[in-house]
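Session log. Operator J.P. requested a structure for one protein chain; no other inputs attached. Running the standard single-chain path with token output.
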Amino acid sequence: MTAGLIVRKALLQHANGGSIYLFGHAFPALLAPLPTAKKKGPKPRYITHGHSPSDSQNLSQNTASSSSSSFSTSELLQEWGVHNLILSEWFTGLEPRSVEPFLRLMPSIEYAQDFFDKVAGVIEHKKTTSKPIADALAFLFACLKKMEVNPPPGWKSRRVRLLEEEARRLEEEAVALKTARDRLEAQRAEVYFLGLSEETQTQLRRMAEEAAADTELAVVRDAKRDRRLQELIRDHMRQDQRTKAI
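Structure written below.
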């Protein structure tokens, strides 16, 4: 081998006949470490747990909104009190401030009204028994402390009584309307009957008499005859209207 290619510095003989070439002094540049190239790419992002100014602003807004919401809820809870309730005469001497802490535990003014009405109902019910309630206010506060009261038999809330009253009113109105409608139809039938010929009127009356002839009682027979006459007149009216429509 030529010296221009490889310079052998030392030859080490081994038992297996191999050889190792050392290049340290001959070509020191070959043994110098290669320079490392800079890797291109995005710079590493460091995760921080701090807050940016915008985060602080958003946090402040959320905190203010939460405080405002809590304040509004608190205001809503204070919108009603004992002065909004309809109290029974049993609670005439009631001091409003004494029941305010209990009212804060009640979910709504309707619940509070029902509670006071139940207590008054129990007092009223016990009044006629052998063990009436001597101190109405003491009994009220005893129920408030337990936040429990068993209503007397047949007790109904104001809402239920209001709905029942409305149902009765509508029922009475429906009966009145039906009565007025029946009277109007009877008057229309009478006007129509008077406009018929004498022969047709006589024929309809005879048919009504025959329908009630088998009834013995005169009052029942007359009522049955009049009812049948009304039916015959209405049938005649409908038949006349169909004929005119054709």
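Operator note: The longest helix spans residues 158-194.
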